[in-house]
Design goal:
Alpha-Beta Plaits, about 90 residues, alpha+beta, two-stranded antiparallel sheet, about 30% helix
Length: about 90
């Protein structure tokens, strides 16, 4: 198994992320691009000490940005939506 801290990069704090946390007991994380569902589940369970019910993964393609004549691209990322078992929560400070 990979080191859990290399699989989970950070939690994504956004309006959508807060909304799904309150309604569905789901949390949004930025994860390694080569991580699969099983590795993400094991990493969240080990880092936060909770039981994971399901994991959904999505790849986000980077956007093209322009500054005058210079065009660049933001980096692509991989996100995971993790649903916890009933009664489980993650304390995020």
């Amino acid at each position: 198994m990979k080191n859990p801290h290399t699989v989970i990069h950070s939690q994504i704090v956004s309006e959508k992320g807060t909304d799904i946390t309150e309604k569905n007991n789901q949390y949004l994380f930025r994860v390694a691009s080569d991580a699969n569902r099983i590795e993400i589940k094991q990493a969240v369970e080990k880092i936060f000490g909770v039981k994971v019910k399901s994991v959904q993964v999505m790849n986000r393609k980077g956007k093209v940005k322009r500054r005058g004549l210079i065009a660049g691209r933001t980096s692509s990322s991989r996100r995971a939506i993790v649903r916890l078992q009933e009664g489980q929560t993650i304390n995020l400070i």
